[in-house]
Amino acid sequence: MYGSAVYVLILALVSRAAVASPVRATRSVQSDRADNCTTSARDLLATLKRALNKPEKMGSNMLFHGFNCTDLEAVVNPNTQTVGVCQPSQDMKCSDQKTSPFSETECLQNIANDLDYHRSMLVEYVRTLDQKSNSESITELNSITNLINNLQQSCKLLPKPESLKDKWSPSNSFEDRKDLCKQLKGFELRTITINRALGYVCAGEYKK
Known about the structure:
The chain has 208 residues and is mostly helical. It contains five helices and no strands. Helix 3 (104-128) packs antiparallel against helix 5. It is elongated, with a radius of gyration of 24 Å.
């Protein structure tokens, strides 16, 4: 009798373990998806930093020849509110002001729109360049574009971007390069926010 009871208990424990195993696998898949988002976002930020902080060199093939990019102000995409809507929810203990709850949907949509805006801008800018005389600049800009594409495709959390309201359009070579510098500096700032926001979303603390 005692032996039978022990056998039933062991069988029950084994059965529970077998049922629980798919749950662990599901969490692993979710973790992999989160890693794809955060890793791709970090790679994009690192590449932007390298492009903007390269030592100044002479030569018409350089990305920002003819001016010092570090002296120009950053210009962020005016069509999105990524910084505001991706702000983590916080309790306001020292003020009567109440913060609106964090909206994952709104935050991710703004991130998707930001990425698409800058991807479109870089593609259009490269299209205006002479492929032979600007080969080094084109390679550098294409590497940023490829990383944007990688983030858009590998991060399954991101929704489809909305239609662009304002697209970047070229004016003339020198002014375009100055504007590119400003926009990339703004995109670097926005990508810092994107990294923090994706880390926050992937951690899921606000859902608890």
